[in-house]
Amino acid sequence: MGIGLLVLVACEKQVDFAPENVSAKLVVDGQIETGLPPVISITRSLGYFSNVNPGIAASQFVRNAVVTISDGIKTHQLREYPSQLSSGITLYTYSNDVSNPATAFVGVPGKQYQLEIRVDGQTYRATTTIPLLTKTVDSVWWKKAPNNTDTNKVVLMCKVTDPPGLGNYIRYFTKRNNELFLPGINSVFDDQIVDGKTYDVQVDGGVDRNVETDPAEYGFFKRGDIVTLKFCNIDRNTYDFWRTWEFSFQSIGNPFSAPTKVLGNISNNALGAFCGYATQHKTLVIPN
Q1: Cβ contacts of residue 195 below 8 Å, gap of 6+?
Q2: Residue 3 pLDDT
Q3: Which residue, 275, 250, 273, is CA-closest to 260?
Q4: Is residue 248 part of a domain?
Q5: Residue 20 domain flag
Q6: Domain that holds residue 219
Q7: What DSSP string runs through 194-254?
Q8: How many domains, the chain?
Q9: Are residues 279 and 140 in the same domain?
Q10: How many whole angstroms separate alpha carbon 91 and alpha carbon 59?
């Protein structure tokens, strides 16, 4: 036994490796939805082993880029706007230039939009579509949380109609009272199984991915809540981006998960996506 232990110890080998330094990439988080102006956030990526705090994260915003968006008829140069958080951190986004309303526009279902970003001598492009609103929510209601002793917890239900023909993709968000709209942990779905059907489905409450989720509270709403469901028809590129992004996010820290490439739609080797949303809203008041 002693000899065996000595052999095992002698066979140990220390392996040292240095992670490759990769140049920062442009990261785009852009969207345009029905009745609203485009909103584009542009940052630089950080290394996997980088130290990150709110100040460092805020410093990655790309300033003074030339950002234009076209609907095939009008082309509008967006304007950079600062937004200060209560923590003192300032965020920056690009949206319609209020001083130039002649070429500004909001999202319209059935239209395609081209985004162009010019910064540091490089040009980045992306295209998205706001589909027609063909897959819809017919009604929403609540019921007691199943298999749960907490009588204050309820679940949100909805009846959805999917039109015949594959290729109807959706993403959903929920809003509780005066909070922000938040996407579900799994927020995008195709119609492989439900093509051409009307069906009932439970809708889990959206989550803030910057805060650790309590498994005991996940998905539920409470009596007295006013809940708004934002149900969005999306194109295939938007579906693929969020499908792969959410799978990658949920795989963090799992040694058994397969590596996943997030499928963005920004050219020139940039990260992120420009997404279009055809939106429908349903609000439900849950009684006390």
Answers
A1: 162, 164, 165, 166, 168
A2: 45
A3: 250
A4: yes
A5: no
A6: 136-285
A7: TTT-EEEEEEPPP--TTS---TTTTT-EETT-EEEEEEEEE-HHHHHHHHHHHHHHHTTT-
A8: 2
A9: yes
A10: 9
